[in-house]
Amino acid sequence: MQRLEVEGIDEDEKLRRVVKALNQNPNYFTTSSCAGRIALIEVPGVGDKEHARFVAKWHRRVGEEEFFDAVKGWRGELWLTVQCPIIHVSCRDLGSALHLLGVAKECGFKRSGIISVTEKRVNLEIVSTERADVPMGVDGVLLCDKEYLRFLLDRFNELLSRSKEKMGKLCEKLTSET
Q1: Average pLDDT for residues 59-77, to the nearest whole number?
Q2: In Å, how far are 25, 82, 162 from 85, measured between CA atoms?
Q3: How many percent of the chain have pLDDT more than 90?
Q4: Which residue has the higher pLDDT, 7 or 34?
Q5: Given pLDDT bands bounded at 50, 70 and 90, which one contains residue 10?
Q6: Contact between 83 and 39 (Cβ < 8 Å)
Q7: Which pLDDT band, with edges at 50, 70 and 90, does 178 fall under?
Q8: CB 170 within 8 A of CB 127
Q9: Phi, psi at 69, each rounded to 5°
Q10: In sequence order, what are the residues at sequence separation of 6 or more whose Cβ sits closer than 8 angstroms to the Cβ of residue 129?
Q11: Which of 6, 35, 57, 153 satisfies CB 3.0 to 4.6 Å to 39 for a cystine?
Q12: What are the backbone angles phi and psi of residue 38, rounded to the nearest 5°?
C-alpha cells in the first residue's frame, strides 16, 4: 500500500496542521484531538476503566522487539488496542458543521458525525473506522502464542497506517481551503 506523505511531514505534524487550519477558520475551534495510537492496557477487571493503566502506547508503527519487550510484567487483564485519529470540533452553525462533516467523510473519516447541538454551537467528532480491541492475557499469562501476537501487531500497524493516510488527506484538504 502506498503511503501518503503531505509535504514530507510526520504524523504529529499533520495533526498539528489540521488543528491549526481548523482553528484559523472563524467557523471552527478544536476542543480535543489525538493522532491515533496502538496501546497495551492493563485492566484489573472487566469494565474497570478507573484503575486501568497504559503498559505501553505508541502514536506510530510499533516494532516487533519493542512490542515483545512491553508485553512483560503486568497483572489483571492485558488488552491490545488500536485507535484511529479523533478530533472534536465546535462549529459556528449547522451549515459550517455540515461542510466540515462532508470534508471529513470525503477524506475517509466515515464514522464522523454531529455529537451535540446547542443554541450557540454544533459539535462534531471526526473519527474513522480503524479501531480494534483484543484481550491478550490475564494475571501475567499470555493467552496466545508469539505467532498470533506477530499477526496482531502486523494488522494493528496496518490499521494505524491506514488511519494516518486519512489524516494526511484531511490535512491536505483543510490546508488547501485556508
Answers
A1: 90
A2: 21, 10, 10
A3: 76
A4: 34
A5: low
A6: yes
A7: low
A8: no
A9: -65, -35
A10: 84, 110, 111
A11: 57
A12: -110, 135
pLDDT at 19 over 50: yes
The answer to whether the beta carbons of residues 133 and 38 sit under 8 Å apart is no
Q: How far apart are CA 43 and CA 149, in angstroms?
A: 19
Q: Is the pTM of this model over 0.70?
A: yes
What is the 3-state secondary structure of 95-163? HHHHHHHHHHHHCCCCCCEEEEECCCCEEEEEECCCEEEEEEEECCEECCCHHHHHHHHHHHHHHHHHH
DSSP assignment of 39-74 equals EEEEESSTT-GGG-EEEEEESS---HHHHHHHSSS-
Contacts of 149 (CB under 8 A, 6+ apart): 67, 68, 71, 136, 142
Q: Give the Cα separation of 29 and 97 in Å (integer).
A: 11
Mean pLDDT, residues 159-167 taken together: 93
Gap between the Cα atoms of 79 and 54, Å rounded: 10
Q: Considering the domain 26-177, what is its CATH architecture?
A: 2-Layer Sandwich (3.30)
| 139 contacts 76 by C-beta, under 8 angstroms | yes
d(CA 124, CA 118): 12
